[in-house]
Amino acid sequence: MRRSDFRDLQVWEKAAEVGVLIYRVTDQFPSGEKFGMTLQLRRAAISVTSNIAEGHGRSTDADFSRFLYMALGSVREMESILEVAIRLSFLRRTDAPIEDLQTVAKMLTGLINKLNGEKSCSLDSSRKQKAEG
After folding, report:
1. Counting CB atoms within 10 angstroms of each CB, which of 14, 29, 94, 107 has the fewest?
2. What is the Cα–Cα distance from 55 to 83, expressed in whole angstroms?
């Protein structure tokens, strides 16, 4: 796959937008969470865009795919932390960018599948098949 600039990737752009949202919503968290959830969410947000960019700069699709999997893991981490933050009333569900994170996850999954030569295999169904098989 011929690559131009990582900033040209729609998934990187969407992840960057979500990263900005994460910084904004964590500004609302209690000051006691500065080194807890706030820091963890912000690091994960930066990890997503960084892994996409770093993987994009690698020489093979397999390397790129590995970095996209790491980015996907960070997306899931943010979803989980946001769910706990909602339960702790640090923010309202309507203010949490969970749908945006799910969009990024779908975009990452699609790009991973494309790099791996798969047509429409979702990561969740392939995990399920491995667990059952």
Report:
1. 94
2. 28
